[in-house]
Backbone:
């Protein structure tokens, strides 16, 4: 094949393809959108799932770095990004997210996947990895684990569901810097990337967060009286597991991360200094940690 044609193929594989899959819920059908990077024929699939109100665009930098080795698939959970909203707000919960991701994996036509999940995306991955016959062969939990601190949930409840309008993208970016301060230090360009994945421009030119505000209804309705504990799920996981923890995270405690290294899959732990909830995986050193774990024992 001519060099120019090979270069064109490589460029195409390095850009995301926007796709969707139809999923079912007790309230009807809905479409889940996803961004796919790399060779679509590659059987080595890495699925990356975002946090509570974020979107698939959070993984653009990581996917761009890893798509030469993996087919990287980044879905928008229902009600976020380009995915459709659920007819019943009570369905914004782990059982529906799990069902949607099983449908997505069936669409990808692979028997096994690697999974990277940030916060809520990590809980979905942990739940899937705990199932008998799971397709998850390697699991990365990004500031997520079997104990979810109530204090962090209360902090998140303080802003989830609020959809402020911003006259300019710069003002939206200033707001994201404020509510996402636990993400740690980032350049102006990185903050802009994080903002563009969270807001959409409206017909009047303003910018608003792009997720279903009814997600807050399900979130607040399920607010526990104490920390959430999911140890039986975690203990059922058998695949190699890595837990990434922001060193000052208020959602995943150091005690929980240490316990995760001693029981269940006995996760490896990597602490990210100067970061709370959650590492964004935009920094090269964070991406390197992910790459090293994914390729561990792999001679390809």
Residues:
């Amino acid at each position: 094949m001519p060099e120019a044609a090979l270069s064109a193929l490589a460029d195409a594989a390095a850009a995301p393809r926007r796709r969707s899959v139809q999923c079912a819920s007790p309230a009807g059908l809905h479409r889940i959108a996803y961004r796919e990077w790399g060779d679509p024929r590659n059987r080595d699939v890495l699925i990356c799932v975002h946090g509570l109100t974020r979107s698939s665009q959070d993984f653009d930098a990581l996917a761009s770095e890893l798509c030469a080795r993996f087919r990287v698939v980044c879905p928008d959970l229902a009600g976020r990004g380009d995915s459709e909203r659920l007819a019943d707000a009570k369905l914004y919960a782990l059982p529906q997210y799990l069902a949607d991701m099983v449908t997505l994996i069936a669409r990808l036509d692979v028997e096994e996947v690697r999974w990277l999940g940030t916060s809520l995306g990590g809980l979905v991955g942990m739940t899937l990895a705990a199932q008998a016959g799971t397709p998850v062969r390697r699991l990365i939990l990004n500031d997520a684990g079997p104990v979810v601190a109530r204090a962090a949930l209360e902090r998140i409840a303080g802003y989830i569901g609020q959809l402020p309008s911003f006259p300019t993208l710069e003002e939206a970016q200033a707001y994201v810097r404020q509510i996402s301060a636990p993400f740690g230090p980032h350049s102006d360009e990185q903050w802009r990337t994080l903002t563009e994945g969270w807001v959409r421009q409206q017909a009047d030119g303003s910018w608003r967060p792009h997720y279903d505000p009814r997600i807050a209804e399900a979130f607040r309705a399920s607010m526990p009286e104490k920390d959430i504990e999911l140890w039986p799920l975690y203990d059922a996981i058998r695949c190699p597991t890595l837990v990434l923890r922001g060193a000052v995270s208020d959602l995943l405690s150091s005690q929980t991360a240490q316990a995760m290294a001693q029981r269940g899959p006995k996760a490896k732990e990597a602490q990210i200094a100067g970061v709370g909830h959650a590492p964004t995986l935009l920094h090269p050193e964070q991406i390197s940690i992910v790459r090293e774990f994914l390729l561990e024992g792999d001679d390809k």
